[in-house]
């Protein structure tokens, strides 16, 4: 079965730093790579992040125009 990786990159919002992002992120995680079963799941999750937690302190540290979300298919071979 194939899976997909959702990989997100971004730069800090104007006047913010990467340290601000880490401080605003409750678990300190900075890398955004998530394994999903389908590309549709990855895109639905991305929409949910912006609508469900878009007002959070961690989202305020992200330069919205710098966000780059990629969805890459990963093939498993035996």
Describe this structure in words.
- By secondary structure, the chain is α+β, with helices and mostly antiparallel strands.
- The protein has two helices and three strands, in the order βαβαβ.
- A three-stranded antiparallel sheet has the order 2-1-3, with helices on one face.
Order of strands across the widest beta sheet? 2-1-3
Q: From the alpha-carbon coordinates, what is the Rg to the nearest angstrom? A: 14 Å
| Multimer state | single chain
The H/E string reads EHEHE
Beta-strand proportion = 15-25%
End-to-end CA span:
11 Å
Helices, by number, come to 2
| Total number of beta strands | 3
Structural class label = alpha+beta
Shape: elongated
Secondary structure topology:
Blueprint: E1 3-9, H1 18-24, E2 32-36, H2 39-52, E3 68-74
Antiparallel strand pairs: 1-2, 1-3
Can you give keywords for this protein?
alpha+beta, 2 helices, 24% strand
In short:
By secondary structure, the chain is an alpha+beta fold. The protein contains two helices and three strands; from the N terminus they run βαβαβ.
């Amino acid at each position: 079965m194939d899976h997909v990786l959702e990989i997100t990159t971004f730069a800090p919002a104007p006047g913010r730093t990467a340290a601000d992002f880490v401080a605003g992120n409750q678990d300190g995680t900075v890398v955004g790579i998530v394994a999903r079963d389908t590309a549709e799941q990855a895109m639905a999750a991305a929409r949910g992040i912006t609508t469900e937690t878009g007002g959070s302190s961690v989202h305020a540290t992200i330069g919205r125009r710098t966000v780059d979300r990629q969805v890459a298919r990963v093939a498993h071979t035996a």
